[in-house]
Design a protein that fits this description.
The protein is 40% helix and 32% strand. By secondary structure, it is of the alpha+beta class. The chain starts with a strand and ends with a strand.
Amino acid sequence: MAAYVIVDIVVTDPVRYDEYKKLAPPSIAAYGGKYLARGGKTEPLEGEWSPQRLVILEFPTVARAKEWIDSPEYSEARKLRHATAASKMILVEGL
């Protein structure tokens, strides 16, 4: 069953965050993940949620998504994301 990682990001250091955008994709792919949305235009349909940068990742399973987030391959990128952005991240099971 697929799993989705949804990240709401506020970039605080755009120059260094560009480096994160280069480091993250190989680690995501290594765990079978792929981008479904990556910072495209968002439009609120209901409520007041208006993310600045929204990322949606798809992984083959919840287990693979959890392996990725704590993986050595993502470690450096994760530290860089924490240093250059504020983010909220959730994991949701697919159907």
